[in-house]
Amino acid sequence: MEQQDLLKRVFARLSALRQNLPKDTHVPIHWAEDYHAALQELENLGIDIKEFRIPSDQFKQIRVGGNYVTGEVRYSRDYYVQRDFFMAKLDAVLVYFELSHGDRQPKIVGFAAGTSGTVTQQETVS
Question: Any residues with CB less than 8 A from the CB of 23 and at least 6 apart, and which?
């Protein structure tokens, strides 16, 4: 498969994950496994994506019940990741993808020195 086609497919998978991720506070681990599988395809192409991975310490069993009188706490058998953390990683890799392989340009906000030595406000919105 051609590299550009594979990049498009991975981007489509990541975009679909983002659009269909459950709205719950915690996301089941199988969603993160699909996400990591897509990242692995990018890594196989030689793209360094390690900062976009969800660290293993973010996968936790969640509290599903208990007894406040006895102090008993019951946890899920399955592991979950907090949705906000997952979304931050997913959004980061999608923005990186767009900046690296798409038409999106980085947003420039700040000040720049003019040719006459004056400072002008500079803002670019993508």
Answer: 83
What is the count of structural domains for the chain? 1
Write out the residue range of the structural domain in which residue 64 sits.
Answer: 3-124
For residue 126, the SS3 value is coil
Task: List pLDDT tens digits, range 39-73.
Answer: 999 999 999 999 999 999 999 999 999 999 999 99
Cβ atoms within 10 A of the Cβ of 123, count? Answer: 9
Q: Give the rounded distance of the alpha carbon of 124 from its chain centre.
A: 24
**Residue ranges in the chain whose pLDDT is less than 70:** 1, 102-126
Backbone angles phi and psi of 114, in degrees to 5: -80, 175
